[in-house]
Specification:
This protein is α+β, with helices and mostly antiparallel strands. The chain has three helices and nine strands.
Length: 187
Amino acid sequence: MILNYWPTPIMYDRISNNKLLDKTTQYILTAYNDNTSANILHQNILDDKELTDFRKEIIVPTFDKFYKQEFGFSIKEKRFHLRGWITGYGITYSMRKHNHSGSHLSAVFYLLAEEQDKGGRLVISDPRFNANRGYKDEFNKWFEPHTIIPCTGDVVLFPSFLYHNVETFYGKLRLAMPVDLILYDSE
């Protein structure tokens, strides 16, 4: 018998409502077209009333699906807060290795990712820092990072403690919406 003692769930999914995906992407391209950090990085984009449908019909059900599969009940039974922003725009966009401290779950919703051959892979690292120390080369597969080449409509959801980075993107335009879920104690 083989048991996994330190599983770390990562969910891969697709946005199935293409009409809402297109509407949201077009809105962001129009409303946030100057790509300034003040407009799209330092605010909770989910406070934008125009994104209410995307939040209700795409984001919350995605977190709910993960929560039901992993813990057996609905996220809607919990008090929670969602914080989202837009990343990935511009030529030579990249993001150094980081995690989302203070959040419980993180997801990336790829609104526009048509140039898969232009870089920009999401790389999620093994959370067991230095676990591979002393192992022979044949064990390397146990410690390799997960690499995702995103496409428009992809969703990747994972525990916020996982370190991840985005390799340099050399294409013209890509839009990703990272979203953090913060859970509160029930009262």
